[in-house]
TrEMBL record:
Protein EC: 2.4.-.-
GO molecular function annotations of the record: glycosyltransferase activity
Major enzyme class: transferase
Heme among keywords: no
Domain of life according to the entry: Bacteria
Domain Glycosyltransferase subfamily 4-like N-terminal: 66-178
Official protein name in the record: Glycosyltransferase family 4 protein
Length: 380
């Protein structure tokens, strides 16, 4: 016991210290927050890795433009933290729109204090060809150019962002999202008389395809095996309940509202299918958690979704805003238990092979060390 205490103290003494900027804090209701809550728990349990991470919320939980009330306090706290503590890295989780401006300001302050910055890019909403480019486009480019390293979530995003900004692909490091293994015995067998469990985790918005999914459920034929659907997420829950009633789905569909992470993980374990019909995504944590729990997946082929949902192996790809196509995919997997069970087992294997948390944290640590080594060489 004494030796273990000494080892833990020694590890902390030589730890690389990182201040990680997340939008809403670790208890926030978003994918980045979920991702780094996994990372935080892992680091707390593995101090021997030599990585100590603290977190600062940049925008808070306010919706829409409400972030402007929180950000000044976050900005002042950043200055105070950099002035009173020693950090090796400031890790900036950045996206598009207002996120780019916030991270630009925070990066400026970090550089004034002589702290190396690493940018972890999670954005997906870029202007199309021929569209007017908003101001954040140039701001985000500056954030990228000033960073010691730029992290993207998969090959798709490395190629896309490099082409968009005419930057060399080697400037971008790929680190796939990872989640803690909360279901090591998955996939659990299902009893013959159990209804097929369907699960959606995300904001109840058009961007996430929640309305399309509700319409798709109403299109399912009556002869299918019994099924139940759970929607877990924030949004206009009352309106969605009303629409489900109108569509005749009240007996089959449940809306939980927002669910804390500890409470949502059992819902993944109960799910046979996890569905995400989004219009755009980066690499959604909900699909990784679904794969970890051994669920078959149905989602749109946007962003890096095909990295985790391999068509015909662990799930089916659908098109955005296609209620009929979504219903067809649901019908196929609800009605074909052998195929569904095959997909469930494959999902778990894909998670183990590519999206475990240890791999992600190890990759981040390697990037931090390389960024510091590159900076030391440039100074010398």
């Amino acid at each position: 016991m004494a030796l273990k205490v000494v080892q833990n103290v020694t590890a902390r003494l030589r730890s690389l210290r990182v201040l990680c900027i997340v939008p809403r804090g670790l208890k926030g209701r978003g994918g980045i927050e979920t991702l780094f809550s996994h990372v935080d728990e892992y680091l707390q349990a593995h101090v021997q890795m030599g990585l100590e991470m603290e977190f600062l919320a940049s925008r808070g939980d306010a919706s829409g433009a409400g972030w402007v009330l929180h950000f000044p306090f976050a900005f002042l706290k950043l200055i105070w933290l950099l002035a009173t503590r020693r950090y090796d890295i400031v890790h900036l989780n950045a996206a598009t729109n207002a996120s780019a401006w916030r991270k630009w300001l925070m990066q400026v302050v970090a550089r004034l204090f002589g702290v190396t910055t690493v940018v972890h890019f999670h954005g997906s909403a870029f202007p199309g060809s021929g569209q007017k480019q908003p101001g954040w486009v140039l701001v985000l480019r500056q954030v990228f150019e000033r960073a010691a390293a730029i992290i993207v979530l998969g090959p798709y995003w490395r190629g896309f962002v490099a082409r968009f900004y005419h930057l060399p692909e080697e400037r971008f490091c790929i680190v796939a999202n990872g989640v803690a293994d909360f279901a090591p015995q998955a996939p659990q067998p299902r009893a013959e008389n159990e209804p097929v469990r369907l699960f959606f985790a995300g904001n109840l918005t058009d961007a996430k395809g929640a309305g399309v999914l509700l319409v798709a459920l109403a299109l399912l034929p009556k002869h299918l095996p019994e099924w139940r659907m759970v929607f877990a997420g924030t949004g206009d829950v009352a309106a969605f309940r009303q629409e489900a009633d109108r569509l005749g789905l009240a007996e089959r569909v449940t809306f939980t509202g927002w669910v804390a992470r500890d409470a949502i993980l059992p819902l993944y374990c109960q799910a046979d299918l996890v569905i995400l019909p989004s219009r755009n995504e980066v690499l959604p944590v909900c699909l990784l958690e679904g794969a970890c729990a051994g669920a078959a997946l149905i989602a749109t082929p946007v962003g890096s979704v095909p990295d985790v949902l391999q068509e015909g192996k662990n799930g089916l790809l659908i098109q955005p805003d296609d209620a009929a196509g979504t219903a067809q995919a649901l019908e196929q997997l609800i009605g074909d238990k052998p195929l569904r069970e095959q997909f469930r087992a494959a999902s778990r294997q894909i998670y183990e092979d590519r999206f475990d948390l240890e791999t992600m944290v190890g990759a981040l640590l390697d990037i931090y060390r390389q960024a510091l080594a590159d900076r030391k060489r440039s100074i010398d």
